[in-house]
Amino acid sequence: MFDVIREFTYAGGKTGKYCSLPELEKLGIGPVSKLPVSIRIVLESVLRNCDGMRVADSDVKTLANWAATGERTAEIPFVVARVVLQDFTGVPLLVDLAAMRDAAAKLGKNPKIIEPLVPVDLVVDHSVQVDVSESADALQKNMEIEFARNEQRYQFLKWGMQAFETFSVVPPGIGIVHQVNLEYLAKGVLVDGEGVFYPDTLVGTDSHTTMINGLGIVGWGVGGIEAEAGMLGQPVYFLTPDVVGVTLTGSLNPGVTATDLVLTLTELLRAAKVVGKFVEFHGEGAASLSLTDRATIANMAPEYGATMGFFPVDEESCRYLTNTGRTEEQVDAFRQYFKAQGLFGMPAAGALEYSQLLTLDLSTVVPSVAGPKRPQDRIALTDVKEKFGELVAENTKYTILPMAGSPASDRKLEMESLSNGDVVIAAITSCTNTSNPSVMLAAGLVAKKAVEKGLTVRETVKTSLGPGSRVVTDYLNKTGLQSYLDTLGFQTVGYGCTTCIGNSGPLDAAIEKTIVENNLTVAAVLSGNRNFEARVHQNVKANFLMSPPLVVAYALAGSVSIDLTTAPIGTGSDGNSVYLKDIWPTPAEVAALIGSAEDPAVFQTLYSGFAEQNPLWQEISSSTGDLYAWDENSTYIQHPPYFENFGPDAGVAADVLGARPLAILGDSVTTDHISPAGAIKASSPAGRYLVEHGVEAADFNSYGSRRGNDRVMVRGTFANVRIKNQMVPGVEGGITKINGAGEPVAIYDAAMEYKAAGVPLVILAGQEYGTGSSRDWAAKGTALQGVKAVIAQSFERIHRSNLVGMGVLPCQFPEGVSAATLGLDGTETFDLTGVAGGITPRMGLTLTITKADGTKIEQPVTLRIDTPIEVEYYLHGGILPYVLRQLVARA
């Protein structure tokens, strides 16, 4: 233990205690003051929680002596202050906790040994869909549909609220989890029962938890299974990271938005390979950015691959807390605490040590979009027309194989109403931008100028506005801009993650039929952070991320196959052509309205009395008690199979022998490709299951809403309509061939046939396997389908961790080796050996490949179990059995 408790003063003479980092440096423990700010905040947690058991003295010394270019072998136990969930990931997490209570009870233990040890906030924001749009009552109707669809889930959440003392729910209709976290849940600094202050830190079950980094708060996205361990007293373990410093200089030019900046940074940082690293912004350019601009950049850390995109605390951070309704005492405690720790103020260029240093001059940023299927693929606005032409040519390479029972047609429709490049979805959506008043007000001003010039949006464009919180509605109404957005069809459809997560709702049936039967490459334009294949809508192939004002502009233009910078957007009521420059707002026009978004009283009013503000939530009834009363007939909530035959002892590692490939996949396979997401097709295995259980197709809801039912989710794993299994070349969709031969079948059906025969499975993949949202079902579904190992060229951070957390072996090919270089086609069998002798982090294993003709290849691979604690998780069959055995043993 270290003698570092000191006092600081705040709020005109009050005193508080804190674990002093400057005092730690005075003890000669390490060069603390030169460490990146983000590392020092993690160090404070390690120091404060040093108890000789969960956190050892050596952990403090290791992190205090972090070396910018050192070897990354040390594992840091990070105890977070709180956990934030959204409902898609939070419901299965609660299902797992309920199942753990059942398992504890069966072992004769008090089920309440399963109880979160840190505050847990769940924000219901992922369940609203854009069923109704372009009408004044869209918000109310969508919410009514949402509650009708999700009653079973909401009853379950209400049970959780009464069953667990530290679990609270922000009900539907309040806002997006990340904006609610930024505007309300975040405290900046917290205090324990002994009067010791400490920084607000967290993990969240959404990869965009990083948005909070814009406020100087350390936090990132983890899988639900990892979050559960953190809630139940386990530190979040991670290797000491590299920290990439990004020096921002200059300032943005007029007409360039924060969205343009974040798309530029996403391209820059993805190219710099910052995957799994901390990114820390600093310099005069960073200091000049508003807090909401910083939050926009921090939000997209998963898109550039970083664990965090961090901005240190300064006076702008304090100003934001004040403007969003925090008390003067709270804000001054935040300010004075960080000053006492030597952590206040935006560091200048060269002040701190970083593993790698990048620089961006903000004046070089130009208006941009990203797409058509990856957020890092930035396109200058001037080049969109040309890039779209290349996409249309690319899409001729693949055909879509219809699933059994899907509608077919024997003729082509005449393409009179739609053509390639036409915009069919235009959505101002997602926390990335709807939390930022500068771009939201700009969108309103574009709408105002367009309406005044007589421009309209054609009927084939589905328009919607999903604000990040009700505060946005307040300032759009105050400024009178909402009425112009309404005129163009951008009525508010709900407060939640709508189009950005695939909850775009249906297109007009005639439009959808025209798209499918003519194999059109139509477009969605959205202000979100994700545009992976089939995410927005299964039949919309081109999806472009952009700022809210550009979403309005493209909705007016109606096509992405024109150059908005030179071609007219439309014809005004006076008969003259209208160009983008004619309706684009000036910085002065936006600045004149920004004060309307900074009223503390509005935040205080809107973030109080949630239940009373939502009668539909009040009407939801639920069961009570410490154990959940499972309903065997529920198609939403089912007891999961993870603790079947659960015993007190861990298992032993075994080689994987005689495995068959379930799929051979290429590069950039995302968790959207792997995990069940979006709409459920009636002809799919999951759709057939629901029909068999009496659910009409109209009531299927989305995969995300059914994450509490493993029977649905395992059937939807690897079922994405755009996934490309190289075992079935030239075809898209979740299909495979058993033993690499015969007719294509659904991946789920093949997996169950293999499982019945006792055959283990492997997945082979390329670079960046598991990119995207931190969906625990991407790992859970993989495990439940019988996959024992995933062998890829590289992994995205969260998905690799989740695979280990579900007892699946992630293995990595050496540089330059892939399924393609090995000539694999799916007819092979695989033996993964070296496991049975006992495993250690990143050890070498041998993958023996036996081809159909009997020839063998012995291919070395690296086991991507990266840390000692992950070895334990794997031996226990996953992180949840490990934690449960720990709790049962202590009880």
Automatic annotation (TrEMBL):
The keyword 4Fe-4S applies. The keyword Lyase applies. It catalyses: citrate = D-threo-isocitrate; (2S,3R)-3-hydroxybutane-1,2,3-tricarboxylate = 2-methyl-cis-aconitate + H2O. It holds the Pfam family Aconitase. Residues 72-558 form the Aconitase/3-isopropylmalate dehydratase large subunit alpha/beta/alpha domain. Coiled coil: none annotated. Pathway: Carbohydrate metabolism; tricarboxylic acid cycle; isocitrate from oxaloacetate: step 2/2; Organic acid metabolism; propanoate degradation. SUPFAM superfamilies: Aconitase iron-sulfur domain (SSF53732), LeuD/IlvD-like (SSF52016). Its EC number is 4.2.1.3. Residues 688-815 form the Aconitase A/isopropylmalate dehydratase small subunit swivel domain. Its cofactor is [4Fe-4S] cluster. Catalyzes the isomerization of citrate to isocitrate via cis-aconitate. Belongs to the aconitase/IPM isomerase family. This is Aconitate hydratase. It comes from Armatimonas rosea.
